[in-house]
Amino acid sequence: MKDQKCAYCVEGEFLAPFGLKICELDNALVYLFKEQSHKGRCIVATKSHVPDITQLSDEERNGYFADMAKVVAAIQKAFSPDKVNIGAYGDTAGHTHFHLVPKYKDGFEWTQVFAMNPEKVFLSDEEYDEVISKIKANL
């Protein structure tokens, strides 16, 4: 199911303000979060438009979390963070998704909950392409 008002379902101009599509996996959609205070921060969304993981079948949920683990591993290989935080808030988004946030000791927000959008670090198109390439190369 797709929702024509959802950034993850429609992509394009709805997604552009905050994300760039990296790829589509078997059970998940993967996006680079444009705000890169945490180098390699990604969003992993379910392929179908569901507001809560309880609305996925066991097979869909297990596949989604397996894909999420692949993305975490790719981030770890590409950027060597000390930890990848995983957060799901979704108060205003109707599409299940998780933020994968690489954290670095002595780096921004280490030992703190990551900010939803600190609006500190935005990259050039070439830099976004480089980050995306590194993640894709490790998927």
Automatic annotation (TrEMBL):
Cited PROSITE patterns: HIT_2
Residue positions of motif Histidine triad motif: 95-99
Pfam families: HIT (PF01230)
InterPro entries, per the entry: Histidine_triad_HIT (IPR001310), HIT-like (IPR011146), HIT-like_sf (IPR036265)
Domain HIT span(s) in chain numbering: 7-110
PANTHER family cross-referenced by the UniProt entry: ADENOSINE 5'-MONOPHOSPHORAMIDASE HNT1 (PTHR46648:SF1), HIT FAMILY PROTEIN 1 (PTHR46648)
Protein name per Swiss-Prot or TrEMBL: HIT family protein
Lineage, broadest ranks: Bacteria, Bacillati, Bacillota, Clostridia, Eubacteriales
